[in-house]
Every structure is written in structure tokens, then in C-alpha cells.
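Lecture 7 notes: from sequence to structure.
We start with the chain below.
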Amino acid sequence: MYKIGITHGDTNGIGYEMILNVFSDSRVTELFIPVLYGSSKVAAYHRKTMEIQTMNLHAIDQATDAVQNRLNVINCVDDEIKVELGKYTPESGNAALHSLERAVKDLNEGKIEAIITLPAIIHEIQRNGMKYSGQTEFVETSVGMTNQSLGILVKENLRIALVTGNIPLAEVATQLKEELIFKKLSDLQTSLIRDFAVSAPRIAVLSLNPNTTPENPGKEESEQIIPAMDKASKSGIFCFGPYASNDFFGSDHYTKFDAILAMYYDQGLIPFRTLATQDGVYFNAGLPIVRTAPNMGPSFDIAGKNIAPEGALLNAIYLAIDIIRNRKTDDEINANPLKKHYFEKGLDNEKLDLTSDN
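Predicted C-alpha cells for the same chain:
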């Protein structure tokens, strides 16, 4: 069975509430071996607050000690941490980062096979002279690939990837370059094949400017987006558009594609959260490790009220397991590819080239 690490997120937010609600159903642990990076005492505090009577918590020192049919907990924060539900504090932010650090370390050492990161704010916490913009940047930095992953929002067959991240809208147009858009298209194509097992993906590309059409594109479409799409098409990527976002999501057009490439954060997030409501997942594609996360924040306003949706955590777990399996299958398929046959020009003899891997 796969060992999946789960970080507890902000101790004052909805992370523990989601965890306890999901694992109160013992059937969940039949699918994988969960390793929670957090605190048994904090878990007990939330369990009491939520009035959950029973929970199979199993305290361990190392991920290698994790057992089946239990929620294994590695204590990686101070036992005296103060829980203040519904309130961000530097202490709760530090607790989230400690959890993330330990989980990523174990992931890099092969002790677990994926991580699920629960909602947290870590950008106000400084570590080793660095401030991270969020958990995604920390994970990227930890595997030596800062700003190189591709964020994909996932809900079943709805997949929306983002060219630019959470930056001011005024900066989007200056960052949208042909090379960047082509790279994101290439990364999305690779992920769809390797992570989602889509053999010949169809990708829809959104325009930056509203009310544009293929016949009347805007400046950025003409100078950056369309040239990037032409280059992608020549390299074998099936991409279509660019489509104006309002018309594209205002109809069922989005259902006809395997993925959508949005130009900026809100262009992808707003329709995704509208369609996926509260059970969407964020996935970091393009990294050597598997990391997923519920697509939501710590939600301090509802923390401790036992109304936090746990569907996003379940979907993040299922997606991580699917991606692990798909990657292993893809590796097996490509481990020993068949040698290519060729015919000599002007002759009728077929030869097998055993000297080349191409």
C-alpha cells in the first residue's frame, strides 16, 4: 500500500477538522497508509471540540513505523502549542511550516510516496533568511525547482492550468511571453499523458483580453499567445483557441477538452471554484514528487464550527494515489521501448536498428 503524508496546515484553521472528519470513516485507511505530520495533542483538542468519540490515532516517530488501518501521527510541533481557533498567529504559521518541512524531507528520502498539504499561511514566516510566498514555493525550492512547476486545478475531468501565478493583474501582460506560454503548454501536455493517463490530450487555450475571436485577436493574442500555440501545434500538441473566457465557460464548451490553459490566476480560479464548489484540488505538475492540496484557504471564519467541507481532502488523496499509479504505469511502458524498424531506400529489405534507442 502507498504511504501518503498529510500536513496538518494551520492549527487554528480547518485542517484538523477536515482530517478528523475524513478519517472518522475507517474505510478510508483501507486504501493507503496515512502519515499525519502534526500533533497528537492538537488532534485530541480538535477531536474534543468536534465531539468525535473514537479515532484510531497511532503515534509514531518515523514514517517507516506507520501501520495500516490507523491514522499514523508524527509529532513535529511543540506539545505546548496554543490553539486559537479562527485566528492566524505566528505560532500557528510556524506549526504549519514545521509540518511541511518534515513531510517534504520524508518525501525526498522516499519514506512516503506523496504529500497532501492542508491550508496554511506561511508567507509571513521566515526560515533560514528566506520568506516563501506560500507552500507551493516551499515545495518547489525543496526539490530544487523554484518557479518551475505547473499549477493545475482538478475536479474529475475539469482541469485548469495557470500560465501565471498569484501576481498583481497589472503584471500579467508583461509576463505573458511566447516562450512561457509554450513551456506551460508542453508541461501540461506531459502531465496529462503521464499523470492523468490521457493518451492524446486536447487543450483549450484562453485569451487574455475579453471579447476576442480567432478572427479578431487582441495585441497579446497576436504577439504572444497565438505564436506559442502555433509552435506547440508543430511539436505535436493539440491546442485550440484562444477562447474568450466568458463565452467559453458560459457554455458547455469547456467539457469538450481534457484541460484548459488560463492566462492568469483569477481567470482560472473563479470559474473553477464556481464549477467545483468546495471539493476542488490543486496539483503541482512538473515536479519529481507528487503533491496535491485542497483548493481552499485556512477558512478561519468557520474554524471550529464542524462545517468545513472534507470533500476536497478526499479528492486530493484520491488524485495523489491515481497519479502515483499512472506514473508507475508510464515508467513501465517506457522502460523498454521497442526498437524502431526502417527500410533502406530503394530496397525491399526491412532492418532492425539495435544500436540506437531512438
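Points to note: The domain at 1-148+290-358 is CATH 3.40.718.10 (Isopropylmalate Dehydrogenase). The chain has two domains: 1-148+290-358, 150-286.
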